[in-house]
Amino acid sequence: MNKKYFFFDIDGTLTDDLTKQMIPSAAKAIKKLQEAGHFVSIATGRAFYKAEPFRKEQGIHHMVCNGGHGIVLSDELKENRPIDYEKSLAIYRQAIELGYGVMVALDDSKKIYGRDFRFYEQAGIRKEPTTYIIDDTFDPSNQDTIYKMYISIPKEEEEKLTLKDTVGHLRFETEYLMFQPDAKREGIFRMLNYVGGKTEDVVVFGDDYNDLCMFDEQFYCVAMGNGCDELKQRADYITAKNTEDGIYLACKKHAWF
Fold it and tell me: Please, are residues 49 and 67 in contact by the beta-carbon 8 Å criterion?
């Protein structure tokens, strides 16, 4: 059997959005792919600290995380890059001038920093475990790196932030815009360089808009049945919903076991 290089998104692909748990049939598929000698990796936008417990729990030894900026190979963290510092700093300053609240992650952790409570007042509490550190002397220009930024700008006002497209960004929540790596494709290519894999042997599974960047024409792209329409339009194959054994069924149909 020709060795394949599989990359799986986590949320909405490997896991059930309602329970946040690994789908049993997906776990079974992962194990069978590994036993068949394939290279199996996660490809997630989650930060390393959030994705690593899941990776270990599922017995997956490789991972592209932090939106493509993090690489775990054979259970060892090889890379975990921040976002572009100068461009992020410019966005931060513009957002502050426009009157929006900004919180900044300076490292790979749940800690975020701000100079006031404006983000909370405008957007409320973030919908994930977060440690807020408010310091009226905080200035990211005094720091060395920026890993992520959160700006409390409504979607209908995004165009005021004219520098927003200079750094990868996503909006999963209506209340704020997240600036974080959006480069899963580049992360997959870097992983291939580590292991000597070929692009024509890559298979990617995804479901949402942040997976569009890894649905490259050089890869074989599988969209989940519960995926967004734009991703399905770009897919080589559309399988069943993840909660309806979509991963397992796709692997069985393509005789990858």
Answer: no
Residue 176, SS3 per DSSP: strand
Q: How far is CA 54 from CA 21, 50, 62, in A?
A: 10, 8, 12
Distance separating alpha carbons of residues 160 and 31, to the nearest angstrom: 48
Dist CA 114 CA 134 (whole Å): 5
Residue with tokens 């310091």: 135
pLDDT tens digits in sequence order for the chain, 257 residues long: 699 999 999 999 999 999 999 999 999 999 999 999 999 999 999 999 999 999 999 999 999 999 999 999 999 999 999 999 999 999 999 999 999 999 999 999 999 999 999 999 999 999 889 999 999 999 999 999 999 999 999 999 999 999 999 999 999 889 999 999 999 999 999 999 999 999 999 999 999 999 999 999 999 999 999 999 999 999 999 999 999 999 999 999 999 99
